[in-house]
């Protein structure tokens, strides 16, 4: 089916499914935590899951690890120490691996951040969303603005040098003033990375069932442009639709997703994508979503919810869906390198996109134009299999 000349970089995603409460806008696989968190049982399940998937990537090195959720900072450092011990016994991890853990201000403790760092977790992604108490309350968050600032300060004080802040705009109760204050406060805290994106109402969320009153689109666009200008002046380069980084501080784990790299996924609802050089296949897999069902089945075939081999018909769309999110696009040879099929497979769509001034394209690189970034959904739709 494909013709891989080399396998892509490999990452590991670990999902922790529990939160103190389910936010009304959240469509991730997250569940309200029980009174007694099944921390030990879940870590044991993750280890069994890891043992189950490792044979698919024998001999390959993990370049990045991302522990997402849910709220991974609900788990103790001791739990992650046990998990990492098994991980390092089963798979080689690069000495320069980026290892990220998501944390929420409402669940942090100073000693816990320090303990995470001592384990080798070298990047924190803190779910701020806003620094404005009224906006946070409207979002159903359990922290306030001062706790958000304190969490960032604590992470920096204990020694984290690589910190991402998640920040949203277009929120219920938000005004031009509070939107501006949010971005200015975030910049003043000097994180190395910002994920800055507009609130969208997703299906299967409380906000979808009971829509809040949101600001009009026109002022939201103005807020975004104003904030992007402030970020640029402060040295944050936009390198993806909603990602901004200081020099050389792009999220390597997410870059691997966007550049169509491989990743193992362990945990309730986790997704993975693995290329197989011997079989010349690319397989996507997902795990049981319900935490208890996952714990009960981890390490067996029953833990696998979906298992799909990507076809050559779909591969062009799969690749471009990710790579065109990057503002600088991608090196042209990367398409063949990651998919194992020639660029001619998508040449018709590339020419259409170029004619519509949505991409610039030559032998060195393929990148979305400003127009292409603005109409990204239209651009990506050109690569849908016919």
What is the 3D shape?
A: globular
Q: What is the helix fraction of residues, given as a range?
A: 25-40%
Domain tally? 2
Strand order of the largest sheet: 9-10-8-7-6-5-4-1-11
What would CATH call the architecture of the largest domain?
Answer: Alpha-Beta Barrel
Features:
386 residues; alpha/beta; TIM Barrel; 2 domains; nine-stranded mixed sheet; three-stranded antiparallel sheet; 37% helix
Mind explaining what this structure looks like?
This protein has 386 residues and is α/β, with parallel strands linked by helices. The chain folds into 2 domains: 10-255, TIM Barrel (Alpha-Beta Barrel); 328-386, no CATH class. It is 37% helix and 24% strand. The chain is built from 15 helices and 17 strands. It has helices spanning 39-53, 77-90, 110-118, 133-138, 145-158, 176-188, 206-209, 217-233, 252-258, 291-297, 312-323, 334-339, 347-355, 370-374, 376-381; strands at 10-16, 18-19, 31-32, 62-69, 93-103, 123-129, 163-169, 193-198, 237-240, 243-245, 262-267, 271-276, 281-287, 304-309, 330-331, 359-361, 365-368. Strands 9-10-8-7-6-5-4-1-11 form a 9-stranded mixed β-sheet, sandwiched between helices. A 3-stranded antiparallel β-sheet has the order 12-13-14, with no helix packed on it.
